[in-house]
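Worked example 2:
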Amino acid sequence: MADLVFGNIGDFVTNPDLETEGVTFKLGNGLGFKLRRAGGANRPFSIFVAEQFKLKKDELENASEDESEQISRSVMYPAYARFVVLEWFGFKEPDGKDIQFSAENCMRLFTQSREIYEHIVTQSNKLANYRYKEVFEAGNVLQIS
């Protein structure tokens, strides 16, 4: 059984190194991120999310829809900021000063722009972004339109 190799599953085979070391995504306007995959070989992300939701289980069971969404964000924002986003570039203060990446600054960004957060969630969960062939051909940088 050890010599059995499937030849038609390439669309579902990711590169674990890319999943943990990250892929750079350019958003446009000089903005971008280097992102690990959310899940897959990024075990710290999966463990953190599972542990945090387990701790908030009772809270979630008794929560309204709005409260539930707020509780979910209180878990997912730090999860993505700490375990998915590795770095960013192009983010500036109103006076033009660069904003350095940190998990705390990343969570502030998520709060100020849920659209950027949702974009990160989408791209870091997209299997194709972490496959061998596509990322290699794109030079390990994906332009997001």
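Residues 16-143 form one domain. Confidence is low (pLDDT under 50) at residues 141-145.
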